[in-house]
Design brief:
The structure holds two protein chains of two kinds. Chain A is an all-beta fold. Helices cover 0% and strands 51% of the residues of chain A. In chain A, a hairpin with a 2-residue loop joins strand 5 and strand 6. Chain A is globular. Chain B has one domain: Immunoglobulin-like (Sandwich). Chain B is 0% helix and 57% strand. Chain B is built from no helices and eleven strands. Classes of the chains: A mainly beta, B mainly beta. Chains A and B meet through strand 5, strand 9 and strand 10 of A and strand 4, strand 5 and strand 9 of B.
C-alpha cells in the first residue's frame, strides 16, 4: 500500500525554469492539496482539488499552476521559478466529506538558484 | 475565515516529562486534527478529534468544541516525540483545513 507519494524528493533548479512536482495517491481520495512550508509561515495552502478536473486556489497560488486529469495524480507546476519559491512542498489527500482524516506525502525540497 | 492559534510556540523538556499543547479556534470547527512533523520533515496524522477525548498510547487529545479549543497531551515523553505539532481545523462543510503555526517540542535525553 504505497499511499501518497511525491517526486522528486529533492530538486535544484534555476530562476526562470519550469518545474513540475508530482503527487500520486493510491487511495482514490477525492480531495488533494498542495502546501508549501517555510520557516516562520507554517503550512500554507497553494491549491486544492475536490475531484478530477476541479481545482481551486488556496492562500498563496501566484506563480503556480495545477491540473488534475486523473483522480490519483495532482501535479504542481512552477511556470517560471523564482527564488522566493524555494521551499518544502507537501501534497496531501483525504476522502470526500469535511470530516475526514488528511494524509500527507513525504514532501519535496525545492531550491531555486 | 477560521483562525488557529497554538501555544506554546516552543517547549523544551527532559525525557520522561509530561506536556500539554493547546490549540484555540476563532470559530466553530467540525473537523479538528493533530499532526506531528518529525525531525525528518514527515507529517503524520495523530488524531481526528472534532469533539471528546481520544487516546493512542502515550498520546491523548481532548477537544471542547463549545469552547473552541483542543489539547494534546504527551505523557512520559521520549526523544522520538521531538518535532513540531500542528493542529488544523475546518468549519461546517469546509473543503480545506486551516493550520496553526505549530508548537516545536524538543525532548532532551
Amino acid at each position: 500500500d504505497a499511499g501518497i507519494t511525491q517526486s522528486p524528493r529533492y530538486k535544484i533548479t534555476e530562476t526562470g525554469r519550469q518545474v513540475t512536482l508530482m503527487c500520486h495517491q493510491t487511495w482514490s481520495h477525492s480531495y488533494m492539496f498542495w502546501y508549501r512550508q517555510d520557516l516562520g509561515h507554517g503550512l500554507r495552502l497553494i491549491y486544492y482539488s475536490a475531484a478530477a478536473d476541479i481545482t481551486d486556489k488556496g492562500e498563496v497560488p501566484d506563480g503556480y499552476v495545477v491540473s488534475r486529469s486523473k483522480t490519483e495524480n495532482f501535479p504542481l507546476t512552477l511556470e517560471s521559478a523564482t527564488r522566493s519559491q524555494t521551499s518544502v512542498y507537501f501534497c496531501a489527500s483525504r476522502r470526500t466529506g469535511s470530516q475526514e482524516t488528511q494524509y500527507f506525502g513525504p514532501g519535496t525540497r525545492l531550491l531555486v538558484l | 475565515g477560521i483562525q488557529v492559534e497554538q501555544s506554546p510556540p516552543d517547549l523544551i523538556l527532559q525525557e520522561g516529562a509530561n506536556s500539554t499543547l493547546r490549540c484555540n479556534f476563532s470559530d466553530s470547527v467540525n473537523n479538528l486534527q493533530w499532526f506531528h512533523q518529525n525531525p525528518w520533515g514527515q507529517l503524520i496524522n495523530l488524531f481526528y478529534i472534532p469533539s471528546g477525548t481520544k487516546q493512542n498510547g502515550r498520546l491523548s487529545a481532548t477537544t471542547v468544541a463549545t469552547e473552541r479549543y483542543s489539547l494534546l497531551y504527551i505523557s512520559s515523553s521520549q526523544t522520538t516525540d521531538s518535532g513540531v505539532y500542528f493542529c488544523a481545523g475546518g468549519g461546517q462543510g469546509a473543503q480545506k483545513l486551516v493550520f496553526g503555526q505549530g508548537t516545536r517540542l524538543t525532548i532532551n535525553p
